[in-house]
């Protein structure tokens, strides 16, 4: 190993150490685990034989009566995962709290690392050096915008890691059953995650029937809950509604931003938001199907296709929050990098603009959480379109990379890049 490679490897390791060392300091100034606290409250209520949705809604209604979304007063949130999760909560409640908490945070940290590990598999040799430095920084920039969402403890970090890791297994082994099981499991906790099932049929052959069966299974598990737990399910739907009508928690997707605008003007956000969602989701899916056919035909590799596939799949979720865009932070950066490096004579100007935009957007995001959402949604759409343009422009012309998959780059590869 030459001197330059050794310096590169050591500097990458140092950056990882610094990134991980920041967390204890960060936690000291910003208490973590706000989503975990909601889970713990729901777990204790369920173990005591109470209705966790009803208990949380009572707190929300009391807050709303006293403050009515008063500026500077953080609204309470409720447990909004469907009743099928409550038996698991009751079982966990019988374990020592220190043990269940330690296991959860260990799984959570593993999930955060797995999200980066998956994204690093899509790098080409010429991209390894720069993205070795980008990877550890993505913890602090979910969706490329500064935010402390990783401290939330939201279970989405575990669920996305599980689904994406099993997708990697599917790509490597051409065996997708673990992926489909992971998607169904994730949808039991967060129903919109059932949309992740499109990853398989859009990146592998003969997966349409298993994907349809997975959607049917997920839908059945959701649809049977009002029969098994009618009261709990009714209160669950009411709790979800309060997330919107009380907490204005619409997210940063185009449909979510539209709903927030309607809400701010005192207008009902449904059913108009459903039509807005269909207006962009259907063309988005059609574009992904077209590009998938090009990929399966061999016009570009999985390294080219997978980052765009993951970003497009996340955009199919009608309600995007920070922890939903966190798993695609590195793919978003990769799409931006590939777009800029393929602009020929405009490359320098585009690079300068991207740096300025990144700094300004992050400054605004730190200043206002609402501004962050208004930036994040359009940014995802713009980078998807830029990535699609780049993919079509470079199809059949990039012969420097061969094959349609590569192993995770090792530290030695990062050093030699």
Main features:
single chain; 417 residues; mainly alpha; 19 helices; globular; disordered C terminus; transmembrane
Q: What report would you give on this structure?
A:
By secondary structure, the protein is mainly alpha-helical. The chain has one domain (3-416). Helices cover 69% and strands 0% of the residues. The chain has 19 helices and no strands. The protein has helices at 3-29, 34-47, 52-67, 86-93, 97-120, 128-137, 156-173, 177-189, 208-223, 225-228, 230-245, 254-264, 272-297, 302-315, 322-325, 329-341, 347-367, 369-394, 411-416. The longest helix has 27 residues, at 3-29. The model is unreliable at 399-417 (pLDDT under 50). Keywords: Membrane, Transmembrane, Transmembrane helix. The chain crosses the membrane at residues 12-29, 98-118, 130-149, 179-202, 208-229, 272-291, 348-369, 375-392. This is DUF2029 domain-containing protein.
The largest pleated sheet is described as:
none
**What gap, in angstroms, lies between the N and C termini?**
11 Å
**What are the secondary-structure elements, in order, as H or E?**
HHHHHHHHHHHHHHHHHHH
pLDDT averaged residue by residue? 88
Strand content: under 5%
Helix content: 55-70%
- Rounded to an integer, what's the Rg over CA atoms? 22 Å
Number of DSSP strands? 0
How many domains, as an integer? 1
Structural class: mainly alpha
Low-confidence stretches: 399-417
Number of continuous helical runs: 19
Give the overall shape, derived from the CA principal axes: globular
Keywords: Membrane, Transmembrane, Transmembrane helix
Protein name: DUF2029 domain-containing protein
Transmembrane segments: 12-29, 98-118, 130-149, 179-202, 208-229, 272-291, 348-369, 375-392
Organism: Terriglobus roseus
């Amino acid at each position: 190993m030459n001197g330059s490679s050794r310096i590169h490897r050591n500097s990458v390791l140092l950056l990882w150490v610094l990134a991980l060392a920041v967390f204890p300091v960060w936690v000291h100034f910003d208490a973590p685990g706000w989503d975990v606290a909601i889970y713990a409250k729901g777990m204790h209520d369920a173990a005591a034989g109470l209705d966790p949705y009803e208990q949380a809604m009572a707190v929300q209604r009391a807050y709303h009566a006293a403050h009515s979304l008063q500026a500077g007063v953080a609204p309470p949130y409720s447990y909004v995962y469907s009743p099928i999760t409550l038996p698991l909560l009751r079982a966990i409640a019988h374990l020592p709290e220190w043990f269940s908490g330690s296991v959860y945070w260990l799984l959570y940290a593993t999930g955060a690392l797995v999200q980066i590990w998956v994204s690093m598999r899509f790098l080409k040799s010429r991209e390894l050096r720069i993205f070795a430095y980008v990877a550890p920084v993505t913890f602090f920039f979910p969706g490329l915008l500064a935010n402390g969402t990783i401290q939330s403890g939201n279970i989405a970090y575990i669920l996305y890691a599980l689904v994406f890791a099993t997708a990697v297994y599917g790509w490597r082994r051409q065996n997708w059953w673990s992926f489909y099981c992971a998607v169904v499991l994730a949808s039991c906790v967060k129903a919109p995650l059932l949309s992740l099932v499109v990853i398989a049929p859009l990146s592998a052959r003969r997966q349409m029937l298993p994907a349809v069966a997975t959607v049917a299974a997920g839908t059945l598990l959701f649809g049977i809950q009002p029969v098994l737990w009618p009261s709990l399910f009714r209160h669950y739907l009411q709790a979800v509604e309060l997330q919107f009508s009380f907490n204005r928690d619409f997210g940063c997707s185009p449909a979510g931003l539209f709903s927030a605008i309607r809400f701010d003007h005192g207008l009902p956000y449904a059913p108009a938001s459903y039509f807005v969602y269909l207006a962009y989701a259907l063309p988005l899916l059609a574009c992904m199907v077209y590009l998938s056919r090009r990929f399966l035909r061999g016009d570009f590799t999985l390294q080219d296709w997978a980052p765009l596939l993951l970003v497009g799949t996340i955009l199919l979720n009608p309600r995007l929050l920070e922890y939903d865009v966190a798993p695609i932070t590195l793919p978003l950066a990769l799409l931006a990098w590939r777009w800029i490096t393929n602009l020929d004579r405009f490359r320098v100007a585009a690079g300068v603009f991207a740096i300025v935009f990144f700094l300004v957007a992050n400054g605004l995001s730190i200043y206002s959480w609402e501004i962050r959402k208004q930036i994040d949604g359009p940014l995802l759409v713009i980078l998807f379109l830029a990535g699609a343009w780049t993919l079509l422009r470079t199809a059949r012309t990039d012969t420097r990379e061969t094959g349609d998959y590569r192993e995770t780059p090792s530290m030695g590869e990062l050093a030699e890049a």
